[in-house]
Design goal:
Strand content: 15-25%
Structural class: alpha+beta
Shape: elongated
Helix content: 55-70%
Order of helices and strands: HHHHEEHHE
Largest sheet: 3 strands, antiparallel
Number of helices: 6
Length: 162
């Protein structure tokens, strides 16, 4: 009788370990995917920059002339200069997964506000001087953003990733 109880406990323990092993494998796969994508941001190259930055959506009013790729890469490298992340929690189910990350990066919200303020100031100053503000090339947009980013602090925040 004692051997039967021991055998049942052994199989129960074996089943529990095998079930937790599946979840652990799923969590490892999620972690691997997250690390792969976020490490790409830490180790930028020109191809990665082009895949993340679509100039047309960032600056829809810009002239069709393309900004030099060196300027675009410099802006991207400034944006991700102090980028870092830490995985805080991973949850993996059968067909879904989520994780919570702590991100350290440039304060994009403050950058957008500062950019908008500076750009509008330039347009208003040109109008106040009786001039039309026609210098809306992509290069000018990127250079303005570069100048603002050089002064921006980094910020930490926690975000959910699903």
């Amino acid at each position: 009788m004692k051997r039967l109880v021991q055998a049942k406990l052994f199989f129960a323990l074996l089943i529990m370990l095998s079930l937790t092993g599946c979840g652990n494998t799923e969590q490892k796969q999620v972690k691997k995917a997250v690390v792969s994508e976020f490490d790409r941001l830490k180790e930028l190259n020109s191809k990665t920059v082009q895949s993340y930055l679509a100039s047309e959506s960032l600056f829809p009013d810009a002239s069709t002339s393309q900004a030099p790729s060196a300027v675009i890469e410099e802006v991207a490298s400034l944006f991700f200069k102090n980028f870092d992340y830490k995985i805080l929690k991973i949850h993996a189910a059968e067909t879904t997964a989520s994780c919570r990350l702590q991100i350290t990066t440039l304060d994009a919200h403050a950058l957008a506000k500062d950019y908008q303020r500076e750009y509008l100031t330039q347009v208003i100053m040109a109008a106040a001087n009786g001039q039309a503000y026609t210098d809306v090339s992509l290069e000018q947009h990127y250079l303005l953003m570069k100048n603002l980013m050089e002064k921006m602090p980094t910020r930490q925040s926690q975000i959910p990733v699903i």
